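Q&A log
Question type: sequence-to-structure
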Amino acid sequence: MISLLGLLALNNYKKPHPIILPFLVFLLLAGMGSSQLFTWIPAQTLDCKIALTFDDLPGLGPSGYWRPREISRTILRTLEDHQIQAAGFVVGEKIDDDLTNFVVIEDWASRGHILGNQTHADVDLNELDADEFLEHLGDGQNYLRRLSRAFDFNYRYIRFPFLHQGNTERKKNRVTKALYNADYKIAPVTVKTSDYRFNQFYVEREGDPEKLAQLKLLFLDHITQALDYAESQSEAVFSRNINHILWLRSGLATAQFLEDLIVQLRDRGYQIISFEEALSDPAYQTEETYVGPLGLSFIDRVAASRGLPFDPEHGEMTRRDLERLLEGE
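Response status: OK
Response body:
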């Protein structure tokens, strides 16, 4: 098996030596007749791991004519095809509003994915006192507790809505203590994205393959930029790439583009692991003391605690931002 990487350092490639060029042409021509003659090896790959997490189960709109279970099943089929165990975080109120949505989280549990609590009404801790927030957390357990009896899983993970973990010292300490006493673990994020912003644009362009292809490229580029920042910040804060946790939502655009996203992650050099394996990285035992209104990734919370630089707006995109990108294509 001949590797082109051994013959040509593509990243630093300028002009091949005149003696090497005919040899390379021969190999390429020969390769046309036999796919086994050589294999393509990326010039640079990461040795890193990442877990996929999905907020807002049973589903986040806009979704057009798609039902939450149809969107969820698209996600679950793609995960199953790639043998990926993910984690989903549930907003109980969405099931209260339509009890048929309970089957969505049942689908996730029956396939062995982790399910956690995003509070009953996806409430913002910045806007509530600690006790009010904890009431929403308790109410958010209702459907999860019922499922855990049938499928034997630990639902005591909390994904803080908007990644807000306390804008005052007193509030943060009160919630942190209550979570510890209830044996809850915080479900952190290292790669922030605004994947949900693409849902409305997908609905508006559905039926136009060319426009959807354009939207998909922008979606994948958005994730790429989020990964670039997370990797760079991880090196700056931890001097290595820790196990990453990607923040996605159970929405239409993410469901439709998930296959391409998984391929992109693996091409980048990522091994996609379970949420629990990601959390086994010792980095997640690092104390962080950030108190404030910002919704920060775990890495940036540690950076803020240590007085290191961070960008609070990374991974965030407004509707107008996406409109400008689409207009510029």
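Response note: Residues 209-238 form the longest helix (30 residues).
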